Structure formats: C-alpha cells, structure tokens
Amino acid sequence: MDFKDLANKAKQALGKNPSVIDKAGDFIDGKTGGKYSAQVDKAQDAAKKFAGGQQGQQGPQDQQGPQQ
Quick check: 62 and 41 in contact, CB under 8 A? Predict the structure, then answer.
C-alpha cells in the first residue's frame, strides 16, 4: 500500500464520520488544558479540508482563547 492509497482510505473514513475530527480536537484540548487550542483548530481545519470540504465545521463558538 502506498501513501496515496492510505490517504484515500483516510478521506473515505473521515467522509463517513466527519465529527471524528472535532472529537479528536476536543480530546487534545482537554488533555492540554486548551494551551494549544489555536494550533488544534488549525489542524482540525486542515483535516476537514483534506477530508473533502468543510462539512461539520462549527462556527466561532470556541473563541475564548487558551485556558490557563
């Protein structure tokens, strides 16, 4: 299996359940206390774009900034 096949399988999996991206980001934010929330948000956006669009993207409800 080459990288292209692996990437296509990832796209298919995320397309079937795009909420996984948000759940993963929430998990990371929880474990890091929100310290890296800006970076996590960027990674979530990139993953959603990779998965084929902005499906399931939430609005700016989490604009609270990092928790300390």
Answer: yes
